[in-house]
Amino acid sequence: MHPPSLTGALVLVAVLAAAGAFGWWRRRHDGRLRAVRERTPAAPGRTGSGAAGDPPHRATLAALGVRPGVVTLVQFSAPVCAPCRATRRVLDEVTGRLDGVALLEVGVDEHLDAARDLDVWRTPTVLVVDAAGRVVRRAAGVPDRAELLAALAPLTAGAAR
């Protein structure tokens, strides 16, 4: 008889440790608003930049319905996405609390090119677009209500109550 091999047990422990680390990382980053750095030149094949001086993706955002002069929350969602419904509830509550903030829900299945242009790779994804038409923050997953309110406060400071 051969002594029992520990290789299988070690592989199992390694896989469980990797899965646990990934779950911890995902939970810490899911739904967190992060600042978006503005790209100066458009990447090859990108359609989002317009005239000189325009924010990147202005044409794409305008085609989706983002109006100039209005702070807009753009939610990319899919019909079979359960977290998208939770995100919609959070965004409805936030836009109900703040004047001067519009909400736009975009179906990725109908607007696949726009999703690609805006680097949306999962649903839900929320983009915070300032009044100048720049994407200033983004979150993949259900955003935290308090964090979203804090991010919108400086953008809506001039909105009339």
Automatic annotation (TrEMBL):
CDD domains: TRX_family. Pfam families: Thioredoxin. Residues 35-56 are annotated as: Disordered. The keyword Transmembrane applies. InterPro entries: Thioredoxin-like_sf, Thioredoxin_domain. Residues 37-157 form the Thioredoxin domain. Gene3D superfamilies: Glutaredoxin. The chain crosses the membrane at residues 6-25. Keywords: Membrane, Transmembrane, Transmembrane helix. This is TlpA family protein disulfide reductase. It comes from Micromonospora maritima.
